[in-house]
């Protein structure tokens, strides 16, 4: 068996875990959570960072903040983990899965442009999928195994169609695109 990831408790991790247990700060608050959020915001150049209990919960909140609602579609790549689709489903929306580029395993941006141009219609209420008239509410690229989607190009496409982007970077925190 080849594990996807192995936890490492090599430094002060055990001391920190014990400190959390000893002081009863084992929930979503406390000095370690505050420190993690501040350091993550600084590392990513963001004004704020919010720690969630897992990636699925974080994606769910981000989709809600992006305005995704029941009956919508969110475009996502067909190589992903179930958490991506679960987060979309928790909003009442449905994933619209597109193929990936075989060289990068990232959302095929040529195909994305084709689908948006040929299979969708712009309406005052937003972009709709011609097949059934449902709203396309956003795009969720998934940076699989540390590989990065070409975000400059994806964001340009999203701006052209006025679509919010929620990145599933669960596997790529710290990765960069060259």
Give the arrangement of secondary structure elements.
Layout: H1 13-23, H2 31-44, H3 55-65, E1 73-77, H4 82-90, E2 94-98, H5 109-118, E3 120-123, E4 126-129, E5 136-139, H6 151-160
Parallel strand pairs: 1-2, 1-5
Antiparallel strand pairs: 3-4
Description:
By secondary structure, the protein is of the alpha/beta class. 37% of the residues lie in helices and 12% in strands. It has helices at residues 13-23, 31-44, 55-65, 82-90, 109-118, 151-160, and strands at residues 73-77, 94-98, 120-123, 126-129, 136-139. It has a three-stranded parallel sheet, with helices on one face. It has a two-stranded antiparallel ribbon with strand order 3-4. Helix 4 links the parallel strand 1 (73-77) and strand 2 (94-98). The radius of gyration is 18 Å and the shape is elongated.
N→C terminal distance? 32 Å
Strand content: 5-15%
- As a whole number of angstroms, the C-alpha radius of gyration is 18 Å
- Please state the overall shape, judged from the principal axes of the Cα atoms: elongated
Helical content stands at 25-40%
Record field, number of beta strands: 5
Overall pLDDT confidence = 92
Q: Uncertain regions: pLDDT < 50 for 5+ in a row?
A: none
> How would you sum up the major sheet?
3 strands, parallel
Question: What is the element string, with H for helices and E for strands?
Answer: HHHEHEHEEEH
Strand order of the largest sheet: 2-1-5
| Tally of helical runs | 6
- Based on secondary structure, the structural category is alpha/beta
